[in-house]
Amino acid sequence: MTIRLYAFDTPNGRKISVALEEMGLPYEVQVVDITQGEQHDPAFVAISPNHKIPAIVDTDGPGGARIGIFESGAILYYLGEKTGRFWPRELSARVAVMEWLMFQMGGFGPMPGQVHHFIALADETDRRYGLKRFMAETRRLYGVMNERLAQHEYFACELSIADFAMLGWAWRHERHQVDLADFPHVQRWYRALMARPGVQRGFAVPLRRCSAS
Ligand SMILES: N[C@@H](CCC(=O)N[C@@H](CS)C(=O)NCC(=O)O)C(=O)O
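Above: the input record for the complex with glutathione. Below: its predicted structure, written as tokens.
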């Protein structure tokens, strides 16, 4: 076992478990329970200085040396480079993967993440403003994705790490109250990815500890 995945059962955690399964890489999971503050454990912060999951440690990194990586986009890029899978060789083909990976990391993650935050607020005034702003932006992003997927089977030319990044957040569409029927090309893409055995394994990997009750 060379890769240890530090994660929890969240969109950013699932991106990586899906990618690892699809790439067929052996790995073990260390659950970091962010509801219990485990992201602040000094041993974890030494790998992930932003105190957030996911992170990985690969004891067989470049030159055979151990390497720790945080930020899910950087992890996906690293795994694509390491395996040569879901990450094209040609620069011309890589551009679209990078574009949509960056789109996800900068927008389709932070924006639905804000919806998840504001939905849970007790104060009605705070909640109303936050949801108005971030639901509108989240729906706008789904519209951009829908346009892209109307023309392409996947976000880039072929199935790539960009799709795995997007999938982690699309998986939470019900939580940010988006009906995929409103975005039929996203829905078609989502169903196709969720039908893949590797993706299903990635979502089935336990990323929470069993509770006693
Ligand atoms: N840009 C980071 C975001 C990671 C992130 O927001 N992780 C969340 C869970 S999905 C987390 O660890 N939250 C714990 C906290 O904020 O204390 C990435 O993509 O890796």
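Notes for the reader.
The chain has a mean pLDDT of 96.
The chain is about 55% helix and 10% strand.
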